[in-house]
Design goal:
Blueprint: H1 4-32, H2 38-50, E1 73-74, E2 79-80, H3 81-89
Antiparallel strand pairs: 1-2
Helix pairs in contact: 1-2
């Protein structure tokens, strides 16, 4: 089980990312537009730097929904490898079976 403070920090970052997502998308579209002039891009870059650090989606960490484990998380299920195996062995995930060859 991960520390609750770390899990809560990640949730706080997720809220910040969602809060600034639209504003960030507008600024990034100005920066990526080939037709915009240099002054507009410079001002957009300044606006992007003024946003909070945690508004960047890169700072989010994918964690297990049950335990908060940061590594070995399957994005399709949102679970860590250990919990995924436990739940799959109980047959609670439809269509997921143990491989045998």
């Amino acid at each position: 089980m991960a520390k609750k403070s770390i899990v809560n920090r990640n949730l706080k970052r997720l809220k910040t990312v969602n809060k600034y997502a639209a504003r960030r998308a507008e600024i990034v579209s100005i920066l990526r537009d080939a037709g915009s002039d240099i002054e507009a891009k410079a001002s957009a870059r300044d606006l992007l730097q003024k946003l909070p650090r945690n508004a960047s989606p890169v700072r989010l960490r994918q964690r297990c929904a049950l335990t908060g484990r940061p590594r070995g998380v399957f994005s399709k299920f949102g679970l860590g490898r250990i919990k995924l195996r436990e739940i799959a062995m109980r047959g609670e995930i439809p269509g997921l079976i143990k491989a045998s060859w």
